[in-house]
Structures are given as C-alpha cells and as structure tokens.
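Quick one, tokens below:
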C-alpha cells in the first residue's frame, strides 16, 4: 500500500502542477517577462498593481533599452518625495544617488523612474513619506498583458 501511495502521490502532484500552468500568447503564467523578452522601445499605458491603497499608480510607461526595463510611474497623490527600487530597510542604507526623486508632469502629478527586473513579477519598492519622514514598503506588479502588440519578441 505504501508503495502504491508513493507512486500515486507524485503523479497527482505533477497533474496538479501542469493543470495550473496556463499559457496565453505563448507565455507561461509562471514566467516573468524580462528585458531580453521585449523589443526595445517605449510602451505607455502599462497597468500596475500595488499592495497599498495609499500608493496608487495612475499611469505607467516603460522604456526597454540596453537589456534593462525602466518604469516611469505617476502617483495619484503628492505624499511621497522619493522612491527606491528595493525594500525600506535597503533604502535606509542605500546611497541617496540610488533614490528616484519625483518630477512634476504637465498635470502637476508626481512621476518617478525606477529600474525593474521584469514584468508580472512582484517588485519591492520603498516610498519615502514626506509628511512622516519614513520609508514604507510597497510591492508593485507591472502587468505584461497591458503591453501593446509587438512589444514581446
């Protein structure tokens, strides 16, 4: 009986894992899109999920160049003076030259540019509250399904 369970359990596990993996447009849901999977260029209208209602991204453009992805995010408010691509703990120890300071766009909204590793992957992002003078951990996911046709190689 133990031998039978030892054979059946791995089989069920494999079936479960493969049935959960779906593909859309040839991209596995378990894969992330890094810069090498994207054509160089600038892509607007990227959807971004945030883990915090206090950190709402209203617009995002990514720029793919030199095998890197740079995301320019526009926030709904003006409460954050700088962003850091990493955790709040890492931001506290980092050189200030690594911070992304805001610029105001034509609508007066704050924009920041950070380098991200990949789309569809949780990206740790620390945000500096100007009011509380404190770093806050945020997590962002830049959604590849909002890319326009021709962006993916």
């Amino acid at each position: 009986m133990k031998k039978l369970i030892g054979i059946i359990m791995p089989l069920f596990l494999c079936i479960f894992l493969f049935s959960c993996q779906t593909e859309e447009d040839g991209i596995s849901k378990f894969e992330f899109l890094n810069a090498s999977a994207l054509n160089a260029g600038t892509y607007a209208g990227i959807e971004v999920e945030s883990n915090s209602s206090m950190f709402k991204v209203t617009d995002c453009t990514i720029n793919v160049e030199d095998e890197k992805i740079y995301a320019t995010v526009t926030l709904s408010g003006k409460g954050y003076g700088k962003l850091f691509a990493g955790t709040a703990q890492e931001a506290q120890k980092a050189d200030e030259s690594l911070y992304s300071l805001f610029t105001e766009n034509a609508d007066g909204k704050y924009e920041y540019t950070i380098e991200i590793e990949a789309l569809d992957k949780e990206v740790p992002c620390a945000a500096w509250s100007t009011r509380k003078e404190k770093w806050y951990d945020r997590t962002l996911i830049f959604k590849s399904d909002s890319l326009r046709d021709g962006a993916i190689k």
